[in-house]
Structure formats: C-alpha cells, structure tokens
Amino acid sequence: MGEEQVSSTAPAESAVAQSGPAEQPKAESKTSIRARIEKSRIPTGGLLGAIMWPFRMLKVLYAWLLSLADTKWGPTAMFLTGVGDGSFFPIPADPLLLACCFAKREKSIHYANLLVLASVFGGLSGWLVGYLWFDSMALWVINTFGMHDQWFSTAMHPDVQKLTADQVAALPQLAGETFYPGGYLYECKKELENNALLFYITGALTPIPYNVTVMAGGLFNVSIPALVVGTIIGRGIRFWAIGILAYYFGKRVKPFIERYFEWIAMGILVVVVLMVVGYRLLAKG
Asked: How far apart are CA 172 and CA 238, in angstroms?
C-alpha cells in the first residue's frame, strides 16, 4: 500500500522537476509618486490662458526634466549644464537641480554640492576663454549672434557722449574693438576693479549672466582665487538653498509648485526683470 502511494506521487514530483522552479510573479509596474505631475490650476482659454501658454510649455519642459532626473543620466546632464552655464552657454541649471532633488529627495544635498563643483569648473573654463581665446573664439560668437552692441556698446551711447576726446581714446581696446560705457565688458571691468570678489559672488548668485562675469575676469586677468571663492559662495547659497528646501520640504512643496507652476514661473520672471532693471539703474547712478 505504501509502495503504491510512493509510486503514485512520483509522476507528480517528476512533473514539478521538469517544469522547474515556479515563476515568481512580476512586480506590478507602478507609477512612482515622484513622477506624477499635479494638474495646473490655471485657465486654459481666453486672454489669460493665452498669456500663460509659454509658462505651460515651461511646465512640459519641467515634466521632461523630472523624467530625465529619475534616470542615471539626470545627474550627468545636470553637471554638464552647470559647466556650460559657467563657461559660455547661459542655460541655468536650477530647474534640472530642482527636478533631480524632487526625483531623489534623499540625494538633494549631494546634487547641490555636485552642481556647485560644476559651476567652479565652468567658471574656470569661462575665465580661460576670456584670457586665452576671447579675440578668436568669444568675439566670433558675440558677432555671430548679433550681441556686439550689448557686449561693447557703441560710440553713440549717451554715456560716451559725455566723455572728452581724450577719455574716449583712453578706453580699453582689444582686437580693434573699443569697450564703450554701457556695454557688458566696460561695466564688468569697472566692477572688477572696485571689488572682484563681490562681483564674482554677485554674478554667481543673481540673474546677472555668470558667464559674462567670469569671461570678463579672464579677459582683464582678474584673480582666479577670487573667482573660485566667489563661485562657491554665490552658487553655494543658490544651490544649497534649493537642495536643503527640497530635502526637508520636498514632499509638501512639490505638489504646490506643480499646481501653481505657471503662476510661480511668471512671478520669478517679473522679479528677475525688476532686479535687472534695478541693477542697471543703480549702475547708471
């Protein structure tokens, strides 16, 4: 009787052995909480909807950045953007930092440190461009993109008209270009002579184009140590603030930012414009 029971169970055991170990059920694919984008609370039609359209497109970019930040390429893209922002291409890395922090909140401080380091490398690269290749590389890019008057100003600028002929002749020149008052380079030279460290900090912290600041520093051969220290202080305040806020308040802040993303973006734009206008008015005064 016992032998019959053993033999009867043998085929069943053989079938189990042939079929191999039972397949584990695949983990259910679920949308990560950090990848969910809250719906905006703005009108989509009418005049206000039309005004908000560019900011809606900005939120689409934010969603793409968030998806990128959730991959292994996110920190790399953020680092390269930080280097580029400091060297020549004025593409702020703040949105990508914010996206990386929201994607992996526990690494927020690490990402902020990484971006500060990238800014230092970028700042040194921009300084070298100004010091070694301004007349061959930077000047070509400035003229190609039609930014000559912004960088150098012109002899017709109101501030130039107030100068005497001797003062105009004494203005700094390079590669046949005169740095007239009102141009980026003239104003940068003046600020660098006043307080190089403060000017580097200001360029790293505020909406003043950082690449213009560091490139002018190289062009006029102004203190690399001041550049490094100023970059760490200015960019550190800016990026560490984002990292710390995202680390401690990310879970609560992220939904609010996404619901009112367009309003916040428009408010930031207004503040930046007012800061730039205020800075220029103070510079003229």
From this structure: 33
DSSP element (H, E) containing 167:
helix 165-169
Contact 150, 280 (CB under 8 A): no
Q: According to the model, what pLDDT value does residue 8 have?
A: 46
How far apart, in whole angstroms, are the C-alpha atoms of residue 156 and residue 256? Answer: 49
How many other C-beta atoms lie within 10 A of the C-beta of residue 22? 7
Residue where the block lists tokens 């593409």: 91
Residues whose CB falls within 8 Å of the CB of residue 197, separated by 6 or more in sequence, listed in order: 223, 226, 229, 230
Query: Residue 21: its pLDDT value, please?
Result: 47
CB atoms inside a 10 Å sphere around CB 143: 13
What pLDDT is attached to residue 225? 96
In the block, tokens 């690490």 appear at 110
Query: What is the rounded distance in angstroms from the CA atom of residue 200 to the CA atom of residue 208?
Result: 10
Rounded Cα gap, residues 171 and 160, in angstroms = 10
pLDDT mean values, one per 10 residues, the chain (285 residues)? 48 47 41 59 72 79 78 86 80 83 89 94 93 86 85 88 88 85 88 92 83 90 94 94 90 83 82 75 63
pLDDT given at position 284: 61
Domain range list for the chain: 49-284
Q: Are the C-beta atoms of 123 and 112 separated by less than 8 Å?
A: no
Query: What is the separation of C-alpha 218 from the centre of its chain, rounded to a whole number of angstroms?
Result: 22
* Ramachandran angles phi, psi of 58, nearest 5°: -65, -35
Contact, 87 vs 105, CB < 8 A? no
Helix (H) or strand (E) holding 142: helix 139-144
Q: In angstroms, rounded to a whole number, what is the distance separating the alpha carbons of residues 87 and 99? A: 22
CB 207 within 8 A of CB 92: no
